[in-house]
Amino acid sequence: MKILFTGGGSGGHFYPIIAIAESIKEISEKKHLVSPSLFFIAPEAYNQDILSENKIIFKKSSAGKARRYFSLLNIIDLFKTLWGIIKSVGIVFSIYPDVIFGKGGFGSFPTLFAAKILRIPVVIHESDSVPGRVNLWASKFARRIAISWKEAAEYFPQEKTAYTGQPVRKEFKKILKEGAREFLKLEEKTPIILILGGSLGSQLINDHLVSALGELVKKYQVIHQTGKNNLDEVTERAEVVLENNPNKARYHAFDYLNNMALRMSAGASDLIVSRAGSTIFEIASWNKPSIIIPITDSNGDHQRKNAFNYERSGACSVVEEINLTSNILVSEINRILENPTVAEKMTSSAKNFAKPDAADKIAEEILNIALEHER
Fold first, then answer.
1. Of 17, 49, 53, 85, which is the most exposed, with the fewest CB atoms less than 10 Å away?
2. How is the chain split into domains, by residue range?
3. Can 2-168+356-374 and 172-353 be said to share one CATH topology?
4. Under a CB-based contact definition with an 8 Å cutoff, are residues 78 and 109 in contact?
């Protein structure tokens, strides 16, 4: 049995694929199936170590972005995509998988095009409230469609669409509460806020957070993921803001939180401040209250729609970029953490929103189609 994965060039595409691959292997073992061969086609491996750990064979393709505005790069990327289709047809034909799983994004288009030409069954998954263009196109010939947000159902054929939720890697569903305070050098009784701006960080969130630090450290400890290129600038500014502040040790800045550090930070935290990408689903799986700050100009406005759909579940508070100031950030943090009823309601709503079996459901369907195709 051969299963091929494809997805765009972000963690939001890559990590759900890993979650599904984990479930496929686990289900195959439980059902005493022959362990399937797993492949991943994309312009970049994204994280070769994780692919190797999961015994997923990487095959490099080529793909270009189709920008919604005029750019000479569109012409260059058109040729990249055409070459990607030719290359992907060759790779897919040589593997001839029993099923192809597409996570969306420009990087998945050539492989899904190859699947259509070669009549290989396709399953796709959409992570956003508003689907991307590749998934909208692929939905016309996909065998099954899985969605993370029930609001996305209106864009797809009802008879083959299932509201599964977002696949989250098994280790990320298990936050670490024991030892977190010791490992991160945190005080025992002071509440903790975790700030996540993504692996690249968020300049806007960083700016307003640093301005608010003097107020925040009076009552809270702050774990701040600044982004890989922002740590020096943020820590220098924080040093100035917190100079002579008796609580300056309550601020902990990291350029990037690795898996262990993130699970510990999530386990210790009382509130999480984040963007509105796929991290929402991890926050929900952690059963934590949150403040979500969506990017204003995301594709199809999907971040704002994700954020407000999550807010409607009762699990978070949304602060739009246009309204974000250091005072509003402090005020909203205080409103949640100083009112146990509000925090408890968000925690309960996050738990109800989370779908911990999403990866298993999708993996089951992929395996069913693969076994049917094998016969």
1. 49
2. 2-168+356-374, 172-353
3. yes
4. no
Residue 287: C-alpha distances to residues 17, 213, 217, 267, 354 (Å): 22, 25, 24, 10, 8
- Tokens 């301005």 label which residue? 211
**Each residue of 199-221: pLDDT tens digit?**
677 899 999 999 999 999 999 99
pLDDT of residue 375: 61
Please tell me the least confidently modeled range out of 298-302, 339-343, 361-365, 368-372. Answer: 298-302
Any bridge partners for residue 2, and if so which? Answer: 37
Please work out, in degrees rounded to the nearest 5, the angle formed at the alpha carbon of residue 38 by the alpha carbons of 31 and 62. Answer: 155
> pLDDT tens across 131-172, in order?
999 999 999 999 999 999 999 999 999 999 999 999 999 988
CATH superfamily of 172-353: Glycogen Phosphorylase B; (3.40.50.2000)
Structure tokens at 127: 């992570």
Residue with token string 């070459």: 83
Pairing state between β 122-126 and 144-147: parallel
Check whether 235 has a pLDDT greater than 90.
yes
CA-CA distance, 162 to 74, in Å (whole number)? 34
Tell me if the domain spanning 2-168+356-374 has CATH number 3.40.50.2000. yes
Could you give the CA distance from residue 162 to residue 160 in angstroms, rounded to a whole number? 7
Q: What is the pLDDT of residue 317?
A: 98
The residues near 218 (Cβ < 8 Å, ≥ 6 apart) are 247
d(CA 10, CA 17): 11
- Asked whether the predicted pLDDT for residue 69 surpasses 60, the reply is no
Of all residues in the chain, what percent carry a pLDDT higher than 90? Answer: 77
Global confidence as pTM: 0.91
Distance (Å, whole) CA 198 – CA 283: 13
Pure H helices in the chain:
11-30, 48-53, 73-95, 109-118, 133-138, 170-173, 180-183, 203-219, 231-241, 259-268, 279-286, 302-312, 326-337, 340-353, 358-374
Do residues 28 and 61 touch, judged by C-beta distance below 8 A?
A: no
pLDDT at residue 298 greater than cutoff 80: no
